[in-house]
Amino acid sequence: KAGVTQTPRYLIKTRGQQVTLSCSPISGHRSVSWYQQTPGQGLQFLFEYFSETQRNKGNFPGRFSGRQFSNSRSEMNVSTLELGDSALYLCASSLELAKHDTQYFGPGTRLTVL
Amino acid sequence: AQSVTQLDSQVPVFEEAPVELRCNYSSSVSVYLFWYVQYPNQGLQLLLKYLSGSTLVKGINGFEAEFNKSQTSFHLRKPSVHISDTAEYFCAVSEAGGFKTIFGAGTRLFVKA
User: Fold this and answer.
1) B101–A97: do the CB atoms touch at under 8 Å?
2) Mean pLDDT on B53-61
3) What is the mean pLDDT of residues B65-91?
4) What is the per-residue pLDDT for A97?
5) Strands B107-112 and B10-14: what pairing?
6) Angle (CA) A49 A54 A59, round 5°
7) B52 interface with A at CB cutoff 8 Å
8) How far is A47 from chain B (nearest CA, A)?
9) Mapping DSSP to helix (H, G, I), strand (E, B) and coil, where does residue B61 land?
10) Which of these, A25, A27, A56, B102, has the minimum number of CB atoms within 10 Å of its CB?
11) Is B26 left (phi over 0), alpha (psi -120 to 50) or beta?
């Protein structure tokens, strides 16, 4: 079974631009969570989607948004990029997060904002 | 709100020595606990999880962890480490019925020959 895939793997943007990251979960998984990983803050929860509905959101500004499609693929968008948005963005999928099924992580998208 | 504290940011240890990575959590409700490992340039991989039942949980790669409710701890142990165990280890907690997982800051395990 194919694992979680994230595209692109690397991205370089400049301040003020916007970016869209994509995550394809493991086949059959309906829950997708997004995390931001930085050396200073560690892993911070961004949001979780299940069946196209956002069920929870972390403490991030409104510039961070996401969505999930009917095939469970998910995208996150960051608008008006800031230098501090440089990070590794990780996506994780599970059958049903609320039942504490195992989360499977993708390799991440490394975003650099110049 | 739940939180997770990993007490050591870095743990250097010699090959074949035992290791313990410490994790404490706080929550006002029932929790589920996890340990993940992250190798360089990779995503996270689940080592083990505690949902209920026996407080001693065995995971992959010879790791185990013990849930201690009175001390709100979930320390990870391995009796004999290998060079290949060098990685970053994350403790995580989620609350019963919750829709998010909170991660600790991570502990970098460095195994020396």
Assistant:
1) yes
2) 92
3) 95
4) 66
5) parallel
6) 105
7) no
8) 8
9) helix
10) A27
11) beta
pLDDT in tens, B2-37: 789 999 999 999 999 999 999 999 987 888 999 999
Give the pLDDT confidence score for residue B29 in this predicted structure: 80
- When CB atoms are compared, the residue of A45, A92, A102 closest to B102 is A45
Binary contact (B106, A43; C-beta < 8 A): yes
Q: Determine how many CB atoms are found less than 10 A away from the CB of residue B99.
A: 20
Percent of chain B with pLDDT over 70: 99
For residue A24, CA distances in Å to A31, A54, B29, B65, B101 come to 11, 16, 32, 31, 20
Q: At B71, phi and psi to the nearest 5?
A: -100, 5
Residue A79 has a CB neighbour count (10 Å cut-off) of: 14
User: E strands within B1-113?
Assistant: 3-6, 10-14, 19-21, 23-26, 31-38, 44-50, 56-58, 64-68, 73-78, 87-95, 102-103, 107-112
User: Across the interface, which of B90, B99, B103 has its CB nearest the CB of A98?
Assistant: B99
